[in-house]
Amino acid sequence: MKLKWLAIxxxxxxxxxxxxxxxxxxGYRIEGDSVVFTFNAADYSKYTDESNGERVDFDDFxxxxxxxxxxxxxxxxxxxxxKKVNDNIxxxxxxxxxxxxxxxxxxxxxxxxxxxAEPYKETSNTTPAxxxxxxxxxxxxxxxxxxxxxxxxxxxxxxxxxxxxxxxxLTGSFNRWDExxxxxxxxxxxxxxxxxxxxxxxxxxxxxxxxxMEDPNNPAKRINEYGGYNSIIxxxxxxxxxxxxxxDANKVVLSGSFNGWNEKELKMTKVDDGWEIAxxxxxxxxxxxxxxxxxxxxxxxxxxxxxxxxxxxxxxxMVK
Length: 320
Fold this sequence. Notes:
Radius of gyration: 24 Å
CATH superfamily of the largest domain: Immunoglobulins
Strand content: over 45%
Distance between the termini: 47 Å
Number of strands: 30
CATH topology of the largest domain: Immunoglobulin-like
Number of domains: 3
Order of helices and strands: EEEEEEEEEEEEEEEEEEEEEEEEEEEEEE
Helix content: under 10%
Largest sheet: 8 strands, antiparallel
CATH class of the largest domain: Mainly Beta
């Protein structure tokens, strides 16, 4: 009887970027706004039988089904079944916006619902697997990061100087302080890397030939648990607010938690079908209202509303 193979992928995501992701990253790739999880049987030689903890070789069974499992689906063995590409390769495509509530995720592949594919320790995106009590299981999970290197990314990091350094790495909360993933590129006046990161506040550092340092050109920093400092960056994206109608109004202002409920700062522009404005916002939840000729109102086109701590109801904008 063929063993049923469910590949569980413990997937550790993480939202900064440059060029392509390293070649030794295993189990996923980023394509535009999607993450493509890929199981290739050629990448694994050992599997753990969940029923008894024994290690088995690939030749000991046939693949019937592969599933992706990880933090993002409560380690389910049957919710995210992968699509067969050929006899050895299975894939599953998901939107990056599905993974925005933390910066990285752990994952693994499970074969036939029972056999976990064990990645090699040397793979760059592995992390030691632990049980619910934090005990080391002496195997490794894979992890995937929402932050990725891209020439067209939204955040560029620069470190001036250090012409004699052999290697400079960018690390931070956006990739769980990985010490190898984001290698910077040397330029005439220093080092540079561009990342695509989800909006939000992040801490980061540079590693210059093994020595950790904060960004000397960024005054924003926060003390860390080691008594040193981490540099801070707040990644924002443009967000458009639009109020339909009210073309007879003389003035419309956008006000919200993002500007301290300022009543004058964000004057909206009249357009053919209403009023609009584009502003930069960081990731997370933002409360807002419109002020139409000095009259406050919630957004009539937005059904998402919440009460604030003072009993007022506000419209809510989520930025991912």
